[in-house]
TrEMBL record:
One of its GO terms (cellular component) is plasma membrane. The chain crosses the membrane at residues 14-36, 42-62, 83-103, 151-171, 183-203, 209-229, 236-255, 267-286. The gene is coIII. It comes from Halomonas halmophila. CDD domains: Cyt_c_Oxidase_III (cd01665). This is cytochrome-c oxidase.
Length: 287
């Protein structure tokens, strides 16, 4: 691997198995949307297949790294790959934020008679545009009775995630300096904060559903609320699992001050998730 050589990984079965699992999950999702719970087994089998493939695939990558098979070229490949992955995640959430922006800035005013497309107001002449939209146009959709206060559970979760970025940064700096005890303690605290966030969001969802009538069927407000916060919550769960794996690897003596991109990539992902939440807190809860 010296002298400018190029590392070529061994033939792998994981890409094709990942495609099969992803296809099964998408097929099952389509069946659920059309036939309801009848498609759930196919979707769950596909999801389980993807999780299993990812676990085994990453295991192989860790083993190859521990065997010293990777060089600087592979390190650059991993960094570019993670960078493009996070960029794709940025575009993923940009689509949802764009939906929220479009509805609030264009669609609702048009339905209220404003702008060049205000003729849409003829459909519901008594509709008054406002956000949060508690009274959707038409009698077939029931809006929520109220909205969640941003200064209670959402604020607590914001402080938790911001704090988790700080604790993770301390752990990362400790790893760069070779202080493994610092890494274990602060990374463990980061994982704990992530679990707390997920638990609090579960409490918030229960409160929203039972006491405020905020559901996926509660008009555009309920749909965008759960679309944005739900996908973000899924990313927090994924990020917490990744950090747990990093914690296990730290306890096993993996990583070195000059060879720790696996940890660094996990930190990039977690910081990205934290930044997304700040945007959610501001544009979903506050404004």
């Amino acid at each position: 691997m010296s002298g400018g050589s190029y590392y070529v990984p061994a033939s792998s079965k994981w890409p094709i198995l990942a495609c099969i699992g992803l296809g099964a999950m998408m097929l099952g999702t389509g069946l659920v949307l059309v036939y309801g719970r009848a498609g759930m087994p196919v979707m769950l089998v596909g999801l389980a297949g993807i999780v299993l493939v990812m676990a085994l695939w990453f295991r192989d990558v860790v083993l190859e790294s521990r065997q010293g098979l990777y060089d600087n070229q592979m390190d650059r490949s991993f960094r570019w790959g993670m960078g493009w992955f996070i960029f794709s995640e940025v575009m993923f959430f940009a689509a949802f934020f764009g939906t929220l922006f479009y509805v609030r800035t264009f669609a609702l005013p048009w339905l209220d008679g404003e702008g060049a497309k205000g003729v849409a107001a003829l459909l519901w002449p008594d509709f008054n545009a406002s956000w949060p939209l508690l009274e959707p146009p038409g009698d077939n959709v029931q809006g929520p009775s109220a909205t969640l206060s941003p200064w209670h559970l959402p604020l607590v979760n914001t402080l938790i995630l911001v704090g988790s970025s700080i604790t993770l940064t301390v752990a990362h700096e400790g790893l760069k300096e070779g202080h493994r005890r610092v890494v274990r303690h602060w990374l463990g605290l980061t994982v704990l904060l992530g679990i707390c966030f997920i638990a609090i969001q579960g409490v918030e969802y229960r409160e929203a559903y039972l006491h405020y009538g905020i559901t996926l069927q509660a008009g555009i407000y309920g749909a965008t609320f759960f679309l944005l916060t739900g996908f973000h919550g899924a990313h927090v769960i994924i990020g917490s699992v990744i950090l747990m794996v990093m914690l296990v690897r730290v306890y096993r003596g993996h990583f070195a001050p000059d060879n720790q991109f696996g940890f660094e990539a996990a930190a990039w992902y977690w910081h990205f998730v934290d930044v997304v939440w700040i945007g959610l807190f501001l544009f979903v809860y506050v404004f």
